[in-house]
Amino acid sequence: MCLIVFAWRPDHPLPLVVAGNRDEFRARPTQPLAVWDDAPQVVAGRDLRAGGTWMGVAPGGRFAALTNIRGSGRQSGPLSRGDLPERFLRGDQAPLAYLQEVASQREQYAGFNLLVGDAGTLCYLNAQEGIPRALLPGVYGLSNAALDTPWPKLLNAREALHRCLAEPRLEHLLELLADSRKIADAQLPQTGVGLEMERLLSSVFIDSPDYGTRTSTALIRHGADRFEIIERSFASGGRVTGEVGFDSAWGWEATALPSSGSPRTA
Predict the structure, then answer these.
(1) Is the pTM of this model over 0.85?
(2) Contact 25, 200 (CB under 8 A)
(3) Are 245 and 231 within 8 A, CB to CB?
(4) Which InterPro entries has this protein been placed in (predicted)?
């Protein structure tokens, strides 16, 4: 997951609203959003190469999401970053206590940002900073640097989320994630990947033959424990290859939502 914008409003009827794109090499095998056979309390996608996930939910309002750190972040580690959200979703540890534990182990992982929350708390850890913190209510953006680093695509997506909050719907969140506009060279961050790659990575929705936005995920939490979550998958050229969603309104036997069949819009 390389771009996440989210609204944390613990006293609101919709306390958590999230839109996120997972950008990845197209050859990396992935399981779409699903109830996990070996952990039926977890609804998440799954990385089939190293295991783990990039975003998911579980009962009790539990939510976890991950991005990597580009540039100066630690680029390798003996353990897979994907197990960080997975461990939280499988467990029952309080969010801040979990991140304090992860902070003591962060040298075992390549650079990461980690969000974890439950019904009443949402917490954040940047592996470079190593200081877990509970987030105040607000609208935030997270890409491949620290929280709210003002990269243009993050600012664009966060502003689009502000507009969606008047009447948040899953389809509107997916639409904001489909923004394929490139940023002018003068506004590009310099993260050490070269100008051509900075240009490719400058849009909210990324597309190239070998690398790009593989999935867009929209999530709305209603009250303490009801989630609506939908994931749309893409191939090269922005072609929609699948869509799956769940609504936990009827207990944690999550019910698949019907596919809208909507194509990506630039």
Answers:
(1) yes
(2) no
(3) yes
(4) TANGO2
* pLDDT at position 23 over 50: yes
Q: What's the pLDDT tens digit per position in 182-223?
A: 999 999 998 889 999 999 999 999 999 999 999 999 999 999
Residue 185 one-letter amino acid = D
Amino acid at 49: R
Please give the DSSP secondary-structure letter assigned to residue 57. E
Number of domains in the chain: 1
* Domain boundaries, position 76: 2-250
Q: What percent of the chain has pLDDT over 90?
A: 86
Q: Which residue has the tokens 């914008």?
A: 5
For residue 13, the tally of other CB atoms under 10 A from its CB is 8
Give 161: exposed, middle or buried? Use CB within 10 Å, 0-12, 13-18, 19+: buried
Has residue 134 been placed in a domain?
yes
Q: Which CATH number goes with the domain that contains 27?
A: 3.60.60.10
Helix/strand/coil for 178? coil
CB 109 within 8 A of CB 102: no
Backbone angles phi, psi at 86, to 5 degrees: -60, -45
**141 domain-assigned:** yes
Q: Is position 264 within any domain? A: no
Over residues 74-78, mean pLDDT = 72
The beta strand positions in 26-118, using DSSP E, are 30-36, 39-47, 55-58, 62-68, 112-117
Q: For residues 160 and 179, is the Cβ–Cβ distance under 8 A?
A: yes
3-8 and 55-58 strand pairing: unpaired
